[in-house]
Design goal:
Strand content: under 5%
Order of helices and strands: HHHHH
Distance between the termini: 31 Å
Number of helices: 5
Radius of gyration: 15 Å
Structural class: mainly alpha
Shape: elongated
Largest sheet: none
Helix content: over 70%
Length: about 120
């Protein structure tokens, strides 16, 4: 049983790294780009349950970019600051959700979701 858990955690390692890079991007910024590149590179040859994580991560990046762009547009009327905070919370929740499923070795249930 412990060998299976070790094998699952080893195969999910890159997916977890991408989640941590996304979380770091809330402070550093550039790490999100590194994370999405890693997700694109690893998605095609991963196991099916991991492919769902990589698809979820890629969607998280691009939807986050879209939400951030819209928020920056509204910064001029001050509501954008609140929207940026909401985008940050959205990103954190998605990353924590993904890490939880990756730890269990399970696929993301609804990888095409725009929300949490």
């Amino acid at each position: 049983m412990s060998d299976l858990k070790t094998e699952l955690s080893a195969s999910a390692g890159n997916a977890k790294i991408v989640y941590f890079l996304y979380l770091a991007s809330l402070v550093v910024g550039i790490t999100g780009i590194v994370g999405v590149i890693m997700a694109y590179m690893n998605r095609s040859d991963a196991e099916p349950w991991l492919q769902s994580h990589y698809t979820y991560q890629i969607r998280t990046f691009w939807i986050g970019v879209l939400y951030s762009f819209i928020s920056f547009f509204f910064v001029f009327i001050l509501i954008g600051y609140l929207m940026l905070l909401i985008v940050a919370v959205w990103m954190i929740v998605r990353c924590i959700k993904g890490l939880k499923f990756a730890d269990k070795g399970e696929a993301i249930p609804d990888e095409s979701s725009w929300g949490f």
